[in-house]
Amino acid sequence: MSEEQAQSGLSRTGRWFAAGRVRLNRPALTTDVVRSKVVRMRRKPAGLLAGILAAAGAHLWAGGLTGVPACPASGTLASLIALSAIGCTINGLTYYGFTWSADSDNTVSVTPSEINYTANNSTGLLEFFSSDFSVSGSNTLDYTLEYDIDPPPVIIRMNQTLFPDPPTGAGTASLPTTICLGYVFVGNACAGATVSLLTFDDGSGASQLFDSVSFTPQSLIGVRTEIELSANGASSGIAGFSNEINAPEPSGYLLLGLGLMILLRKRARFDSISLRTSD
User: Fold this and answer.
1) Which residue range forms the structural domain that includes residue 258?
2) Which residues pair with 157 in a beta bridge?
């Protein structure tokens, strides 16, 4: 009976064992074979490092690679809304899908063209301000600003700052923000987990003008900020507010790549010594 016929009747484990026995009977590795294996092992760290550098490069040159233009340094909310689904980039992150809508209890009108913004392309800071963020008497301002951020590589934190124009008496100003992780809002629903921020300033003296939240790395988030101003027979207002997105610095990817490069080179050197020893 031939070896091939004998192996055909074996179980899978038996065939693996038989194959292993055959490999054990191979001729000793030649110097050229050892060298070729070492070269292939040394190529692996370079390939992994190239992937890490590509991730850092995606963060550094996202706008150029995707063709999405950089956001103008300043303008109106109306100009951001006009960008629609294309959006624009701030510090390498793509902002798009801006909407501005009044809630049911709103009694004053503030249009997107009456809201100004500034964008800092170095820090990722996006500020909104308007002289119309103000109410008095029995009026209430209640609008929702919504937009999406689709970055390379990931987002890990969001900060919010309220710029006060202090309410008086019973007046209140509140800006709750909800962040949809890994998805965009569809109507009022988020298909994933959410985290929240809250800044406020009350005529009673209570205030929280800054809030921050960290989360697991996300490649997509939906942002919804409500601007809620209630005069309650007195007055309420804010000068504006800012949202700041934080992503890992490209230098972090470079350091990770360097560390992996060192570890893998040590592994390759160890494997090459083992191969020579076995020869």
Assistant:
1) 30-60+250-279
2) 214, 246
